[in-house]
Amino acid sequence: MSDTRDDVRALVGRTKDLSPNQRLLLAFYATLPAGRAGTQQTGQALAEEMGWAPTFFSRVRKELVEAGWLEEYDRFNNIRYFHLTNQALGRRPKVVRLRHVG
Fold first, then answer.
1. SS3 annotation, the chain
2. CA torsion, points 36, 42, 43, 45, in degrees to nearest 10?
3. Are the beta carbons of 26 and 64 closer than 8 angstroms?
4. For 97-101, which contacts have Cβ atoms below 8 Å and span 24 or more sequence positions?
5. Inter-axis angle of helices 54-66 and 20-31, to 10 degrees?
6. For residues 5 and 12, what is the distance between their CA atoms, to the nearest angstrom?
7. Which residues contact 6 (CB under 8 A, 6 or more apart)?
8. Residues 87 and 99 sit within 8 Å (Cβ to Cβ)
9. What architecture does CATH give domain 4-89?
10. Domain segments of the chain as ranges
11. Which residues contact 24 (CB under 8 A, 6 or more apart)?
12. For residues 86 and 70, is the Cβ–Cβ distance under 8 A?
């Protein structure tokens, strides 16, 4: 994210309808370095950094994935990696026009 402070503030503004824990986790993800290398930390490591139990962290993250705020972008064995979606970043979703065949 370009200016992390402003981006996190904008994210918090877009998430008013979420629970405080969901908003906190999204703000935490927003502060992680951008790109694949920066966000490849396990959920257990992120939970520890936040002071949350790994099971609680996973539950809140799952809720955010289901609501479209986080998405899985990579997997290595049983470790899954997530990042903010376009919705969370305040970007318009990418729309691909389909051609009519025939």
1. CCCHHHHHHHHHHHCCCCCHHHHHHHHHHHHCCCCHHHHCCCHHHHHHHHCCCHHHHHHHHHHHHHCCCEEEEEEECCEEEEEECHHHHCCCCCCCCCCCCC
2. -120
3. yes
4. none
5. 90
6. 11
7. none
8. no
9. Orthogonal Bundle (1.10)
10. 4-89
11. 50
12. no
Q: Which long-range contacts (CB under 8 A, 24 or more apart) does 5-14 make?
A: 7/89, 10/90, 11/84, 11/88, 11/89, 11/90, 14/88, 14/90
The single residue listed with the structure tokens 């490591």 is 45
Beta carbons within 8 Å of 21's beta carbon, 6+ residues apart: 60
Query: Given pLDDT bands bounded at 50, 70 and 90, which one contains residue 25?
Result: very high
At 100, list the tokens: 């009519």
| Interval 34-87: pLDDT, tens | 655 446 788 899 999 999 999 999 999 999 999 999 998 888 888 888 888 888
Residues in the chain: 102
